Amino acid sequence: MFENFDVELLARIQFAFTVSFHIIFPAFSIGLASYLFVLEGLWLWKKDRVYLELFDFWKTIFAVAFGMGVVSGIVMSYQFGTNWSVFSDKAGPVIGPLMGYEVLTAFFLEAGFLGVMLFGRERVGPGLHYLATSMVALGTLISATWILAVNSWMQTPAGFAMNDVGQFVPTDWWAVVFTPSFPYRLVHMVLAAYLTTAFVVGAVGAYHLLKGTAHRRAGTMFSMAMWMAAIVTPLQIAAGDFHGLNTLEHQPAKVMAMEGHFDSHPEGAPLILFGIPDHDEKRVHYAVEVPKLSSLILKHDLNAPMDGLDTIPDELEPPVEIVFWSFRIMVGLGFLMLGIGLWSLWCRVSGTLLTSDWLHRAALTMGPAGFIAVLAGWITTEVGRQPYTVYGHLLTADSLSPISAEAVGSSLVAFILVYFLVFGAGTFYILRLMARLPRDPEPDLGLGPIRASGTTPAAQTEHGGKHGH
Length: 469
Hints:
Order of helices and strands: HHHHEEHHHHEEHHHHEEHH
Oligomer: single chain
Strand content: 5-15%
Strand order of the largest sheet: 1-2
Structural class: mainly alpha
Number of strands: 6
Number of domains: 2
């Protein structure tokens, strides 16, 4: 069935499929662990039970997402041995210890305190329970640090030498971990995880506000999510800009593909907003562009020259069509998130944050936006690195195992069937949990308790809209 397929392409599709399922769960759990840390901290500080109730609500969702992330990660890691054994052999002396450190530090920390966080409040008391929650949150961040260190080394390799059998051997572990792209990529990914969680929490809050149930809990989580959207989205856009400048310095071909620059521009490059890249004809059809804006953004000079893909051999060019569009999806969603954040600030100032149905509908629609943006950013990063696995040193074609297309293709079909069944069921269960936010004991749109003074529902709504958040 697969004998006429390219084994490299099938192996790449298989890894892309499994990593796409995997990355969305850690991205969610990283942000959600920190959100649980904040919720429990607010409960301990303010003694307001709504924070504890939200903590208990989201910790169950976190447990399911964390479990699916672990399972999908284990399956993905096996492919280093089955499909990419040459890569594992050559790069193993560098990436093997880094991935081992992730297990020894982050995963053990998370696993060791996860049970206490989920089930131990009555047994260990609030102080030690909060410590367990903080350790789980810290563990997710340490895990992201090590994984980003591995991937950043593959993107901008440093601190190594080649031995006699063609293996990458570390010579400076500090340089291996802290590669030129590592800090930019770490900040960009962690902020992406926080925004992903914020828009999921905001969507759940908006859903229950639109239904008219659990107003106090829904209003609290919606307000917190919109604060995160308003504050973190501008930081993410700025971090993305710095990351782009770093990528231009160390991986210029990736930026050329992102920008759709097939030709060099000696006197200022345009910013192509939209168009249809054509790799065969080396041009972007129907391009909508702003003259010289790309040079201004990337080099802070309208007339700065910009190299194009015409300076790179064809066999070393990344797939422009994929990178061009994935980059625009990521950026477009980022600016939509910024719009939601600014809209929420306007509603907050005008006292309509919890009563604006249009804002709630928009937030509900944007619930999956973080996941899509993370996937689009990951595609930009990984496809833009092609045709290398270790940028500039090891080609993807030279990283494959001696395996047949039939074996890779049949296992890919099996992965697709099993993943959609298992993780589809898990995702459906999470959505069911999100739809079951417990009702408030009494109608309330404010953060504080409403006095039993005969206040009408309309007056309560006005109170919550003007003073609750």
